[in-house]
Amino acid sequence: MQGIGGPSLPRLTQNTRPLGCLHCGTNENVAIESIESLPPHPGELQVQVGYVCRTCQGNYLHTARFRDVAAVLNKVRSLEGLLRFAGEYFHCGEPMSLAGSNVKSIYAPLSTDDPGEDASAVNVGTKLLRCQCGFQLELPN
């Protein structure tokens, strides 16, 4: 069907809408948590997507165009070959497994004198993730 300015685009239905927080009015702080395939359908590829706004904590689940989901995923910067999705880290196409945990001190003395008991050291719990290829990633708990 041709419109005045060229082919008319199908309108997004109530069930199919762009990704973004309705409260904040943007997709800049969207963290995608799930993507589900839909049964075959005519037209543009669509998926069921679940996400949360990291700013206001709004949760969303609806049908969206796959290209919109891909655009949001492609904006996230990460280490080369590392993907974070739905709270899991993936490397070499496989989810990384927990290889251990540790407690690290982030206190760095300013002098070589004994800091004593009054030093304000901060201990941070960490977890070590490992890929089958040997790649490791240590993250705070």
**How many extended strands?**
11
Number of domains: 2
Distance between the termini: 55 Å
**Which percent bin holds the helix content?**
under 10%
Strand order of the largest sheet: 3-4-5
The residue ranges in which pLDDT falls below 50 over 5 or more consecutive positions are: 1-14
Structural class based on helices, strands and sheet pairing: mainly beta
Share of residues in strands? 35-45%
Describe the structure.
By secondary structure, this protein is mainly beta. The protein has 2 domains: 9-76; 79-141, no CATH class. Helix content is 7%, strand content 42%. The protein is built from 1 helix and 11 strands. The protein has one helix at residues 66-75, and strands at residues 2-3, 6-7, 30-37, 46-53, 59-65, 82-85, 88-91, 94-95, 97-105, 123-130, 136-140. It has a 3-stranded antiparallel β-sheet with strand order 3-4-5. The longest helix has 10 residues, at 66-75.
List keywords for this structure.
141 residues; mainly beta; 2 domains; 3-stranded antiparallel beta sheet; 1 helix; 7% helix; elongated; disordered N terminus
List the helices and strands and how they pair.
Layout: E1 2-3, E2 6-7, E3 30-37, E4 46-53, E5 59-65, H1 66-75, E6 82-85, E7 88-91, E8 94-95, E9 97-105, E10 123-130, E11 136-140
Antiparallel strand pairs: 1-2, 3-4, 4-5, 6-7, 7-8, 9-10, 10-11
Summarize the structure.
The protein has one helix and eleven strands, in the order E-E-E-E-E-H-E-E-E-E-E-E. With 141 residues, the chain is mostly beta strands. The chain has two domains: 68 residues; 63 residues, no CATH class.
